Task: structure prediction
Amino acid sequence: MNLSDTGKSRVNGYLFVLERSLKTFLPGDVARDAVREIESHMCERIAAMDGTPTEHDALEKILAELGPPLRVAQAYAAERIIDEAVTTGRLIPIARAIWQVAATTLMGIARRHGSVQRLCCRDRIPGCRCNEADLSQQRRSASREWHSAVLRSAVPHAARRNRVRRLLDHPGIDRLWNRRAGRDPSRGSKISDPLARARETASHCSALGDRDE
Amino acid sequence: MSCENWQEQLRRGSLDLAILLTVSAGPRYGLAIIQHLETFTDLIVTQGTIYPILGRLTREGLLASQWVEGEAPHPRKYYRLTDRGRTRLQQMKDEWRAFTDKISRLMAAAERARHESQ
Result:
């Protein structure tokens, strides 16, 4: 099947969006290679689409099966960044991976908002008669559930969550954090709260969330 | 966890093995890998997400890739298994068989227990 100008524009638009998305986190040559491969896939599919009644239907089917460009780009991001950080242990890839996880965690928070709206029943039920110990237990439990939900939203693939946990345990994280906070790790300074909380979140998931799934 | 989520995790977890098996017979390009997987499995939901996995397997040294021009009206990127990939594939196949054996034994034991209790 030979594409009309409209069809070519549709294909070019898809590739343009994909390339722009990929270039935000991939080196230029890697992004171009990825786009070239997707373009090759589309050309192959278009050439084989002789039986479809209209060009529009054929093209939409091909693009739907390929997936939206942002989703394809997101798949590249997820595969690339976290793996790079885990395998190299270098600070910049680790920082990028943390940013990636943090950014998707924000989406996770937005998506999961409402799943744990209230921390304890006193916040939900007027006149609740729970004692302080019960309320404290409820808050801890809700907090664990919330953290677990956030990490599961951010990193839906269980194997990749394990990689994130390994990443958080990587010595490079300590170096990065101590450098960022201007601390000397040789003096035995403690890891600050945010990083400890991230590790706690990962261990909550490991101990509770994944088993619950 | 819903059944759909569980299926999704199972599907994703086995995609690496499925891709390595697909290219173990000889070099294939992206669309040929996808078509092969679609013929024998329902592992692929979104075709575009296979390419990032191919890229990762290449970076890990399990696959080697090469652009080939002139074979078709457009260039094709072929993937072939490396020696390291062949070793990894064998490990994954062994692990997969051992895993399915364990689950089968568990299922058989559960069935037996159910019959005995009836």
